[in-house]
User: What shape does this take?
Amino acid sequence: GVDPRKSFYVAPFEILGGGDQLAWLREGSASMLTLNLAQWSDLTVVSYERGLDLLREARLDTARRIGLADARAMARKAGAWTVVMGQVTAAGDSLLVTARLFDVASGRQLHQAQQSGNRTADPRPLFDGLTRQLLDVAGAPSTISLGRLTETTTESIDAYRAYLEGTRALNRWQLDRADSLFALATARDSDFALAYYHRAMTFGWRQVGDSLHLALAH
Assistant: This one.
């Protein structure tokens, strides 16, 4: 009774070139596409945090590349029927982002989407474009309103990177590190609601009974 094209798990993308400057996009790719796809209420999307759990349980949380067999296994474990995989390729001044959709049951490739831009520019608009192409495959109407990542998260790429690192630290129960990273994210952008929310959760676990986490959540 489930439409497989409306059930997604996004695996971390493989980063080809770019060195440390682009390394954050390995996990950033999964976070950004997951956030964007989850805007459509008709889709079931495995959360980024659940994805971190799956990677850790499979001992792939530091793997440079996730293979199709492993990605399908994690998708099955999460109850998802379509898996998204891809690469971020840096070549000269250009950045190419490629996403591929696979049917979890058969392993068959369903679709490939690509976006390209300047290597030094904010990559998030490229993932907005990929999301639109993936939603077309899922059968989303062309009139669907899709918010930009910078609108639903933050205009600051530095704040977003700190938020991603903080989420990963929180998932590993490194509460002190997570708190400092979420604090850095909100210092970079005082309107970053997701970072405040996650910092409130972190503080609540660190200091049970302290009312500061309620202030952060608001």
Strands lie at 7-10, 14-16, 44-45, 82-91, 94-103, 109-118. The two ends are 39 Å apart (CA to CA).
